[in-house]
């Protein structure tokens, strides 16, 4: 079979591989240098591509940046599926907190890009914050209100609970250098990270647990 006949079957997989390489390179470049400091030439070099090839897949730096940010946000929102499974509060929150910490460990660069973006006023994601995220908080806030009504959680502002969870879990990505410095110069190993997850979960759940007479 000629290469011409074989190429159509390979194109989807090959395209996906190239796009994945571009996105991984872009995530690293944006995390290291920020939006203004990053260039598509440097991203192409990280991905092992000519710059022209990168622009074949993504037209502009802004479009590439939004794709990177969008991928991070999609991953974060996917971890919130535990809120949609109608389980007990403790189980749902445990899955959510652990999932967010696992993402912080698996994709620390994405978390750092998002933190930098928000601290700069969120120019690229303000529409997401004001629509998709606001709707997510409203819907999951209603779930938390249900837990409060059923006595599983003490009365609290759901938004403050979400802010607390996000701050603690994303700390393990955004402040990885600080954690390593306080851990003898090395990142947490698997056992230490698992212990940290347990402690974070226990601390939050005990803090929001129902008042006991």
Automatic annotation (TrEMBL):
Has UniProt tagged this entry with the keyword DNA-binding? yes
Report the DNA-binding ranges. Answer: 39-58
**UniProt KW keywords:** DNA-binding
Q: List each copy of the HTH tetR-type domain by range.
A: 16-76
Q: Which InterPro entries match?
A: Homeodomain-like_sf (IPR009057), HTH-type_TetR-like_transc_reg (IPR050109), HTH_TetR (IPR001647), Tet_transcr_reg_TetR-rel_C_sf (IPR036271), Tscrpt_reg_YcdC_C (IPR013573)
* Annotated PROSITE patterns: HTH_TETR_2
- What GO molecular-function term can you cite, just one? transcription cis-regulatory region binding
GO BP: negative regulation of DNA-templated transcription
Q: Does the keyword DNA-binding apply?
A: yes
- The identity of this protein, by name, is TetR family transcriptional regulator
């Amino acid at each position: 079979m000629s290469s011409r006949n074989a190429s159509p079957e390979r194109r989807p997989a090959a395209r996906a591989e190239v796009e994945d390489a571009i996105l991984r390179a872009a995530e690293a470049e944006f995390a290291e240098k920020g939006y203004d400091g990053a260039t598509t030439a440097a991203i192409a070099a990280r991905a092992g591509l000519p710059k022209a090839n990168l622009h074949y897949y993504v037209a502009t730096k802004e479009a590439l940046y939004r794709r990177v940010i969008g991928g991070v946000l999609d991953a974060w929102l996917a971890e919130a599926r535990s809120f949609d499974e109608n389980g007990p509060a403790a189980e749902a929150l445990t899955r959510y907190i652990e999932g967010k910490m696992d993402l912080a460990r698996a994709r620390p660069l994405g978390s750092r890009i998002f933190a930098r973006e928000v601290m700069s006023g969120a120019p690229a994601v303000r529409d997401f914050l004001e629509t998709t995220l606001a709707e997510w908080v409203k819907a999951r806030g209603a779930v938390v209100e249900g837990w409060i009504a059923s006595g599983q959680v003490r009365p609290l502002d759901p938004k403050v609970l979400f802010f607390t969870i996000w701050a603690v879990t994303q700390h393990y990505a955004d402040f990885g250098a600080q954690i390593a410095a306080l851990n003898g110069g090395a990142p947490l190993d698997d056992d230490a990270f698992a212990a940290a997850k347990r402690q974070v979960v226990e601390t939050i759940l005990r803090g929001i647990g129902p008042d006991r007479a």
